[in-house]
Amino acid sequence: MTTRVFVPRETSAVSVGADEVAVAIAREAKSSKATIEILRNGSWGATWLEPMVEVEVDGARIAYGNVEESDVPGLFANGFLSGGEHEKRIGPIMEIPYLINQDRWTFFRCGLIDPLSIAGFTQTQGFKGLTKAFEIGADAVIETVTESGLRGRGGAGFPTGIKWRTAADAESDQKYIACNADEGDSGTFSDRMLMEGDPLCLLEGMMIAGFAVGASKGYIYLRSEYPLTNSILERAISNARDAGWLGKNIQDSGFDFDVELHLGAGSYVCGEETAMLESLEGKKGIVRYKPPLPAIEGLFGKPTIVNNVVTLASVPNIVNIGGERYASFGVERSKGTLAFQLAGNVKRGGMVEKAFGLTVRELIEDWGGGTASGRPVRAVQIGGPLGAYLPADQLDTVLDYEAFSAIGAMIGHGGIVVFDDTVNMAEQARFAMEFCAIESCGKCTPCRIGSTRGVEVIDRMIAGENRDENYDLLVELCDTMEDASLCAMGGMTPYPVRSVLKYFADDFASPRGVDA
Amino acid sequence: MKANEHDSKAVSQVIGTFGGRPEMLVQILQALMKRIGWIPEDAVRQLARELNLSRADVHGVVSFYHDFRTTPPGKHTVKICQAEACQAMGSRELTAHAERTLGVGMHGTNDDVSLEPIYCLGNCACSPAVMIDEKTFGRVSHERFDHLIGGVREDS
Prior knowledge:
The complex is a heterodimer. Chain A is of the alpha/beta class. Chain A has helices at 11-15, 18-31, 72-77, 97-100, 118-123, 128-136, 138-148, 160-169, 190-197, 199-213, 227-242, 273-280, 309-321, 323-327, 360-367, 401-406, 425-439, 445-463, 467-484, 488-492, 494-503, 506-509; strands at 3-6, 36-39, 53-57, 60-64, 89-92, 176-181, 217-222, 258-263, 304-308, 330-331, 334-335, 337-344, 350-355, 377-382, 389-391, 415-420. The radius of gyration of chain A is 24 Å and the shape is globular. Chain B is of the alpha+beta class. Chain B has helices at residues 5-17, 25-36, 41-51, 55-64, 84-87, 91-102, 142-155, and strands at residues 76-81, 113-118, 130-132, 135-137. A four-stranded mixed sheet of chain B has the order 2-1-3-4, with helices on one face.
């Protein structure tokens, strides 16, 4: 009898030894004459347990966490293939609180299936959303997405249905779907997990979008920092094409759609939608003026839907269960679920898909288990490098788009980076400006020059030169950048800076290690 | 720096793979980076000529993106994440350790290695993260860094 063993092929798991563990398991099985099949699944998202290996015993999958290559002989000696006891044994995957207490709507296949298998995908409702889309027609698909209340998961939170309606109504001989997979925000990795764990779901979402707005071609703009994702996506695209799920007349529906995968080249600003379009056209990633909106005049001047990976991957499920059902999750104007990512100095880092409406504290304490260092949480940055730093006493803020904008912060792509009390917040404010100076596309002056001046002003504050005057100057600079920058890069760099001035000003007055 | 004969053939081949489409310039440069490891000045001229773009266009793209380097890299490229999640787990200290161990500063190259900053490898729940020659590593303590570097040096 063949025993199935699951070892993730996912960047984080592989980064801490999953490939070596897979090789060791194959070797050990061979020498003990056991017949096994090693499946390389995606990650379930319990990243702190990676490499997490599972073995299928009587239909249940038994998990072992933090498995190292050197553990493998011992595991086999303890009856690993029948779920035997071992210090690394966690138990059945479906009993892990971190996972079962989530609302896994978009990521439900991540970890569960072989990401490259068309059969595995269709057996778990794969392509059901697309098939239903063909049945109900393009207009009804857009209505469903509108009704679901889905907002762009890349960070801006723009209503997806409205964007789709705009592109659908635009007259053109050619339209495009451009998937933004340039997940540049530090602390975010949900796009990557989805693309590595369930790439066909993204392709299905892109096809539904194409069908809804009348686009026959899709692009995925993937950041070059994700080489493993690149190879998984390439194979998923080719498998889908071979099985007739991409290309001409998909499954005899009369609908044509194909996807081209493009790599970025290490530029953060290319995650801004118009800079991404420029880069897709082979040019420098310089931000465009808006209007015209990309939905009307986008890639190569044609109407283009630019959506984030998780936005598109949410669509098959929404079409499947209906917009109303999806909208029953979440709060106020933040409907459905978001894949939150716990990162940085946190004990149990990983991905948590939950309906909007829980608090930051619940995520960090209940899921994250506090800091990895065991020291108190001092600051939490949410929403990437352009997101505000929240002090520990604001952790009860509810995770919804409006509650965050009310406190001058943003949820963005759902990345939550935890810092303990050893952090020097003046350094973090300086980094926000420095990062903007490094990554600015250079088109508008407030961002290009302001960021460099910002670093200089902060350096003077840290050095204790005319601290009060430089404080006022920094606030004024933040106003200018926020009001006059062309895009969010310069326009939101002040968010983390202001939050440091507001909540952690002491770090300027007596920077740690200087006169403290 | 001059590109050699081999490079110019490689450039033509890569352009051919992308059907000579000028809108594929970023993709072509990525493929060249993989093939030659850097973008020589001669390659810029050749790309401009064969893609019917101006040299300024090609130079602009090469200089805009962090991935494209215009000098030969060391035998290995080590990239250390400098973004916030890794900062929260000691990437600044790891960077200083790497500079000392490798004997080269950030953005520097010696015979052995090029040391580069990178802003997020998407491995933020396993910080600090490092990429060595296209392979990502997580939970990189100073000891693990030394071990990884030792392994890479042995292989070459």
